[in-house]
Amino acid sequence: MINVANKLPEFEAPARPLPAELISDPAIDRGLASVRGHLGVEIAFVSRYVEDGQRELTHLSSDLELPMGPGFREDREESYCWHVLQGNLPELIQDPADHPLTSDLAITDFLPVGCHVNTPLRLADGTVWGSFCALGRTPDRSLNDRDLAILKSFANLAAERIGASLEKEINHREARKRVESMLDGHGVSTFQQPIVSLSTGEPVGVECLSRFPDLTKRGPDAWFEDAAMVGLGKELELTAVRCALDSLSHMPAGLYATINVSPGTVASGALRGLLETVEMTNLVIEITEHCQVTDFDELAREIAALKAYAKIAIADVGTGYSGLRHIVDLKPDILKMDMVLTRGIETDPARKAMTAALVQLAREIGCSMVAEGIETEHEARAMKNLGVDCGQGYLYSRPLPVVAAQQFLLGNAR
C-alpha cells in the first residue's frame, strides 16, 4: 500500500526528459561527491519516480565501474529508496542483515549493498520527486544520525535546485503555449498612437502598437519577451506586423504608419518577404534599439533592401545599443528619440544638449526627428524650440483602437 501521506508526481507517459541544466547541474554533482567523501562510501546518487511504477537514476557519483548510470530504470519496489519512503526500511542502514526485507531485494547482493543512507527528495509543495541516496559495499556500524542529518542537508539543497529547474521548465512550457495561441493573429489587436507636427499641431502619422489578452496583467513587452525566450520571437513579431498591416486599410491619405520590428527579425529577411506580398504606401518600419544587433552588416544590407517597400525609422535613439556611426550607416528616414530624453527636458541642460546634437545629426543626414513620450506643454515647447520636427505622447493622445484613431486623425484634419 502506498503511504497516502506521500504525494507522488502525476506521472506522464513517458516522463519528460530532464532539462539540460538540471542533468549537468554542478551543485547537485558537488553535493553527491561531498556526501560520498563525508560518509566514506563508494556510491551516491539521485533518482526520480517515473511512470509504470519505476524509478530512474538521474545523477550518479562513483569511482566504480557500475552496470547502471543516469537513465537506468528499475521497478521502484525493487529499490531500497521506495521502501524507505513507505516506512518499510529506515533511512539509515548500517548493515542490511539487520533488516530481513533487504534479502528480498536483488540489489542487495548485486552491488552488493553493505550500508545505505537515504532520504526522500520533496519539492516545495510536498511532492516526493525521488530520493537522495549514498551507499557503501561493506557494512559500517559507525554511521549515525549525524551522518543522516548531513545527507539530508545536501538533499534539501538538491531538492531546491530540482524544484527551481522544474518550475522554470513549467513556466517555459506555459509561455510557449501562450505564444503559440497568438500566432494565428486572432488574439492580437492593433492600437494606433498619433504622431503630430510640433510646428502645426496636425497629425502626420501613427505608430502601430500590438495589444494582447489580459493587458492589465501582462503588457506587450512581456508577450514579446516570452516569445523570444521560447524561440518564437520572430514568429510573434511577424504576426503583429500582419495584424498592423490589416489595420491600415482606412488610414487617411497623406499620413504614414510605423510598425515596430526588432533588428533580428529584420535581418532574417522574413519581414521583406512579407512586405513583398502587400501593397502599402506611406509605411515606416521602426527598428527598436533595445535589442542588441549581433550582425550589423547583415542588418544594414537588409534595411537597404527594405527601402523599396517602406521608409526606415530608428527608435530609442539616445538610449539604445547603436552608436551614432551605426545610425549614419543605416541611413534612416526618421529618428525617434526615447522618452527618457523627453522627461523634464525643459529644466535639464544635459537633455537639451543631447537633443540639440541629435537634431543637428538628423539635419546632416537628411532625416526627421520624432520625440516620444511628450506629456506636458513644457516638454512639447522645449522640443519645438530645439528643432524637433514631431512629437508623440499622452499630451496628444494615448494609443487608440483603430476606429477611434481614425476619428482622431480626421477630426484634427478638419
How would you portray this structure in words?
Helix 2 runs antiparallel to helix 5 (145-182). The protein has helices at residues 20-23, 26-39, 80-85, 106-110, 145-182, 220-229, 233-246, 263-267, 270-275, 296-306, 324-330, 339-342, 349-365, 377-385, 402-413; strands at 43-50, 54-62, 73-75, 92-93, 115-122, 128-136, 189-197, 203-211, 256-261, 283-287, 311-317, 334-337, 368-372, 390-392, 400-401. The chain has 2 domains: 20-170, GAF domain (Beta-Lactamase), CATH 3.30.450.40; 183-413, EAL domain (TIM Barrel), CATH 3.20.20.450. Helix 14 links the parallel strand 13 (368-372) and strand 14 (390-392). The protein contains 15 helices and 15 strands. The protein has 414 residues and is an alpha/beta fold.
Question: What structural class do the secondary elements suggest?
Answer: alpha/beta
The domain count comes to 2
Give the CATH superfamily of the largest domain: EAL domain
Report the total helices: 15
CATH topology-level fold name of the largest domain:
TIM Barrel
**Top-tier CATH class of the largest domain:** Alpha Beta
Mean pLDDT: 91
Multimeric state of these chains? single chain
Shape: elongated
Series of secondary-structure elements, N-terminal to C-terminal: HHEEEHEHEEHEEHHEHHEHEHEHHEHEEH
Strand content: 15-25%
Distance between the termini: 81 Å
> How much helicity do the residues have?
25-40%
Unreliable stretches = none
Within the largest sheet, what's the order of strands?
7-8-9-10-11-12-13-14
Largest sheet: 8 strands, mixed, barrel
Supply Rg. 31 Å
Q: Based on the structure given, which CATH architecture of the largest domain is correct?
A: Alpha-Beta Barrel
Number of strands: 15
